[in-house]
């Protein structure tokens, strides 16, 4: 009987072309979209030139090195700044007001000043650039008091006096690789997407439990009459659902791995293990939501989708760095979020050389599955219907 | 009005489901507002990143100076000097970055040889980048002082720390009355289209899938109601849902950002409302068009997510437009939400209400309205075809046949 129900569940799912089609199409479409959007973000991470106005009046022209530095950073195809040279502060102010520039630079009392109208990345970059200039200038002035020759040599950094220049490109900091792989922020989007698909396995969970409840479906009425024990019926359908869900998610996984070249670490077997554990948790989670017999199908789907979306948001599906913020501020919430655990298990395979953290995440997922499954078995056993 | 009344009846029967959708998506919007990427709008230099400095070279003036510079900019977190401890701290976000002073570093520095610190930082962490550039600048200044050959290590470190304290004077210009737009208001405005799309497609789709049921569809097809009248009835329902959701979300957003709103120029507020009404029109048109193809509730969930996530990702809701490449931006311009996000940026940095300031905002709103009208026209055509085409019966099976 067990394998008969298991086989029938798989057949039933395969015949439901809508569900199978969307379960496959959903991650493939979205991961392709992620691929094109995130690839362009990674390629263009050097950012676009920042439109900046510079007031080239008398005090500015007196600051020869500042002008030279600004000319250098605004030259070439990959210029940091897109400079609008203006002769009066009024003009620069008008450009700032109309939003044509992110800020403008002028010189007062031999010091550059930055004018902006809001805070943001561009404004911070402009400030850092000027800070750097001021600090180097201060250093050269300090050195000049003790050693004018060296100061002259240093100040020739852009003019190249006597060919002796200070190497400002010297590498002072090297990247430290804690693992063999470079940390990546973009892979987490794909991992969170796989987590979402695993949780959407909850739709199978709804069907599994509805098929056991006589007041919710004709199959439920038939199954209630059968002599089979309720937990066996549940386990057979549940296993069938896990099989279907695992195959669907695995297809998406291989698409990401082979077509989009998303890195999942070196162990494909462990990654498939994550998919299996995630699918089991998702289906068990859906089964729990299906338990209240007075809730209609639409309401259950709504609750399932809603909770899954919230879990996936906190796992980093929409905004990069959210899972990191939740982990820091609400560690318990992060711990019980199945989507975060699935995404983290994938990231552990990518990030760590060992498997300790990976198994910790898988353990939590299996623990959740056991709790959800236990609730389902306890809630559906020995239920009798006075009337349907 | 018959179609509209039928929609309202179905909605009443599904009010619990719709309430669940609304509550979940509203919570999602609030979460996005309060945990979103605020570094896009805020001054990240004001935040104190967490860092660890591991010194394997023993005490030296250079290391002490570096510790002093980092301490001023971030919060020090003590960590054991082991690979596992560093990996765990990085993975669980206990630190934003880790600096390691390798053995022999001080000697190399004194002898003028190549010496480099080692550093790990969380990917794409702006705060990590901020500390990194500060450390680089400090070491660069130290090297400059060192070239004199007349200063001891202690003196060079001390002088470099002193130079690092020099900062640029920044003036934030204010061009009109009212406070600058608050970070939370901007995040609310930025994520609003995604939530409106989710709410509208779900709220409209959940009712219209009922009309797609075979027997109800067959019954409707033989009724003497024109396809346009049907479409208008559905449009009216979609408008009621859309406007209802729009009002509730704005009340919620308003309550969450009440302090910022009180200080805001009311004309900026009006522009925000106009912009979000335009994107609401887009969301309603998209919802109507989707409902023409969605046959059951399970498919509705997948379709809702695909449409909302895809449109939002491509339009700069989640990944800022400034970071997108030229190629993808060309595609983004074909999506109405791109114009909404552009307008959001313009309104937030509005400096006046002259025609030259307002013109691009009005243009953005008109483009969105144009997209909404075009999508609605496509919906009317699809709706008419579905109501009239003989082909639509081809795949229809009655419940008995099924």
Task: Please give a quick description of this structure.
The complex is a heterodimer of chains A (about 400) and B (about 400). Chain A is α/β, with parallel strands linked by helices.
Please bin the fraction of helical residues of chain A.
55-70%
Mean pLDDT of chain B: 84
Specify the biggest β-sheet of chain B.
4 strands, mixed
* Sheet with most strands: strand arrangement of chain B: 2-1-3-4
Task: Return the string of H and E elements of chain A.
Answer: HHEHHEHEEHHEHHHHHHHHHH
Are there runs of chain B of 5+ residues with pLDDT below 50, and where?
Answer: none
Strand-residue proportion of chain B: 5-15%
Q: If you compute it from the alpha carbons, what radius of gyration of chain B comes out, rounded to the nearest whole angstrom?
A: 29 Å
| Biggest interface and residues each | A-B, 103 and 112 residues
Unreliable spans of chain A: 157-163
Compute the gyration radius of chain A: what is it? 31 Å
Report the order of strands and helices of chain B.
HHEHEHEHEHHEHHHHHHHHHH
Tally of helical segments of chain A: 17
Oligomeric category: heterodimer
Q: How many separate structural domains of chain B?
A: 2
How many DSSP E strands of chain B? 5
Distance between the termini of chain A: 25 Å
């Amino acid at each position: 009987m067990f394998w008969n129900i298991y086989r029938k569940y798989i057949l039933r799912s395969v015949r439901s072309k809508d569900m199978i089609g969307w379960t496959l199409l959903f991650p493939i479409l979205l991961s392709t979209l992620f691929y094109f959007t995130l690839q362009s973000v990674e390629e263009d991470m050097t950012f676009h030139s920042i439109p900046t106005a510079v007031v080239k009046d008398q005090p500015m022209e007196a600051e020869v090195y500042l002008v030279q530095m600004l000319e250098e950073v605004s030259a070439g195809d990959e210029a940091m700044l897109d400079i609008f040279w203006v002769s009066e502060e009024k003009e620069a102010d008008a450009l700032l007001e109309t939003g044509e520039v992110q800020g403008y630079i002028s010189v007062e009392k031999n010091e550059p000043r930055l004018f902006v109208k809001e805070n943001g990345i561009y404004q911070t970059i402009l400030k850092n650039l000027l800070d750097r200039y001021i600090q180097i200038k201060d250093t050269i002035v300090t050195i000049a008091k003790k050693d004018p020759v060296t100061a002259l040599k240093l100040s020739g950094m852009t003019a190249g006096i006597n060919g002796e220049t200070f190497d400002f490109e010297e590498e002072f900091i090297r990247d430290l690789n804690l693992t063999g792989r470079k940390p990546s922020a973009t892979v987490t989007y794909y991992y969170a997407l796989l987590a979402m698909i695993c949780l959407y396995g909850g739709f199978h969970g709804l069907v599994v439990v509805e098929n056991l409840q006589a007041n919710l479906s004709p199959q439920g009425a038939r199954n209630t009459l059968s002599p089979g024990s309720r937990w066996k019926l549940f386990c057979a359908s549940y296993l069938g659902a896990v099989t279907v869900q695992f195959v669907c998610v695995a297809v998406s996984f291989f698409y990401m791995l082979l077509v989009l070249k998303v890195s999942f670490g070196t162990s494909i077997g462990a990654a498939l293990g994550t998919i299996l554990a995630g699918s089991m948790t998702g289906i068990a989670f859906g089964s729990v939501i299906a338990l209240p017999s007075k809730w209609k199908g639409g309401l259950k789907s709504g609750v399932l989708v809603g909770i899954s979306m919230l879990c996936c948001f906190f796992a980093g599906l929409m905004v990069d760095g959210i899972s990191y913020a939740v982990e820091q501020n609400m560690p318990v919430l992060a711990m019980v979020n199945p989507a975060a655990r699935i995404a983290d298990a994938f990231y552990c395979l990518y990030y760590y050389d060992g498997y300790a953290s990976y198994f910790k995440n898988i353990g939590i997922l299996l623990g959740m599955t056991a709790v959800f499954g236990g609730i389902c078995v306890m809630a559906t056993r020995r239920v009798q219907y006075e009337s349907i | 009005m018959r179609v509209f009344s039928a929609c309202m009846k179905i909605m009443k029967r599904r009010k619990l489901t719709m309430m669940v959708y609304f509550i979940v998506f509203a919570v999602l919007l609030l979460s996005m507002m309060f945990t979103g990427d605020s570094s896009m709008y805020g001054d990240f230099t004001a935040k104190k990143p967490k860092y660890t400095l591991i010194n394997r070279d023993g005490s030296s003036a250079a290391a002490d100076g570096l510790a002093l510079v980092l301490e001023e900019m971030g919060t020090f977190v003590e960590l054991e000097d082991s690979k596992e401890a560093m990996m765990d701290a990085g993975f669980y976000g206990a630190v934003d970055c880790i600096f390691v002073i390798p053995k022999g570093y001080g000697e190399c520095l004194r002898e003028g040889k190549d010496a480099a610190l080692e550093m790990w930082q969380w990917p794409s962490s702006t705060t990590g980048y901020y500390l990194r550039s500060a450390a680089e600048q400090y070491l660069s200044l130290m090297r400059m002082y060192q070239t004199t050959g007349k200063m001891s290590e202690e003196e060079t470190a001390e002088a470099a720390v002193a130079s690092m304290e020099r900062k640029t004077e920044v003036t934030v210009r204010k061009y009109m009355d009212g406070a600058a737009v608050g970070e939370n208001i901007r995040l609310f405005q930025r994520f609003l289209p995604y939530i409106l799309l989710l709410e509208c497609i779900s709220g409209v789709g959940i009712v219209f899938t009922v009309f797609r049921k075979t027997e109800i569809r067959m019954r409707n097809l033989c009724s003497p109601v024109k396809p346009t009248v049907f479409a208008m009835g559905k449009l009216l329902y979609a408008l009621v849902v859309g406007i209802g959701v729009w009002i509730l979300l704005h009340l919620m957003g308003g309550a969450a950002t009440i302090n910022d709103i009180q200080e805001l120029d009311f004309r900026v507020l009006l522009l925000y409302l106009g912009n979000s009404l335009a994107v609401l029109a887009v969301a309603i048109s998209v919802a109507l068009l989707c409902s023409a193809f969605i046959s059951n509730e399970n498919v509705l969930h997948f379709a809702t997510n695909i449409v909302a996530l895809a449109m939002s990702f491509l339009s700069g809701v989640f990944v800022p437009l400034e970071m997108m490449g030229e190629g993808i931006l060309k595609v983004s311009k074909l999506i109405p939400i791109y114009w909404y996000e552009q307008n959001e940026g313009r309104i937030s940095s509005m400096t006046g209400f002259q025609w030259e300031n307002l013109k691009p905002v009005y243009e953005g709103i008109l483009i969105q309205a144009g997209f909404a009208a075009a999508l609605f026209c496509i919906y009317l055509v699809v709706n008419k075809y579905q109501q009239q085409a003989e082909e639509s019966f081809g795949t229809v099976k009655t419940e008995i046949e099924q």
